[in-house]
Amino acid sequence: VPVAMIIDVLNKVLVINVCRIEMKESSAAPLYAMTFMDVTEQTGAKVNPHTGMVELKKFLVCDKRAFLFLDVSSIYFIRSEGNYCKISTEKNSYYLHLTLKNILRRFVGQKFLRVHKSFVVNTEHIRKIQPAGRGQTQIIFDREEIPAVPVARRRLKDLKKALALI
To answer: How many other CB atoms sit within 10 Å of the CB of residue 6?
Structure first.
């Protein structure tokens, strides 16, 4: 099964694809093949002159051995899971080998807001924020099948400001 990772080198967005190759009739150690694909144009990447970072307009994810380019508007929230993030859309979830911090750096100016140490939400899909008991707050999205996302107390003011509630 191929493993993919997105990196930016020399203001290009590259996908590294590493595959293990085994010869059926050989007892030799397995071989590995590595390919690099330039997907700068497909992701809408531009270099931010203020930060020098390559910023993307589309997320590149791997799904069942195929690469998909997700529009930012299709994403509801992103959850941190160590060095990976799980991107949730209306129908599917995808893993991306980036931290939340790096996602926020690469998708500056988009409608993403960090609302918890483990969650970034797309503010265009928020229907309401509501109490969740014991002083907690959660985000409810515009689709009922999308699970609620917790809001950290210290991030509530920023969320309200982003939604023009204060």
So the answer is: 21
Determine the Cα–Cα distance for residues 4 and 92; give it in Å rounded to an integer: 18
End-to-end CA distance of the chain: 49
Q: Which residue has the higher pLDDT, 20 or 155?
A: 155
Q: For 110, which DSSP code?
A: S
Q: What is the pTM of this model?
A: 0.81
Q: How far from 159 is each of 98, 108, 142, 154, 165, CA to CA, in Å?
A: 23, 16, 16, 10, 8
Which residues lie closer than 8 Å to 112 by C-beta, 6 or more apart? 72, 78, 103, 104, 120, 121, 122, 123
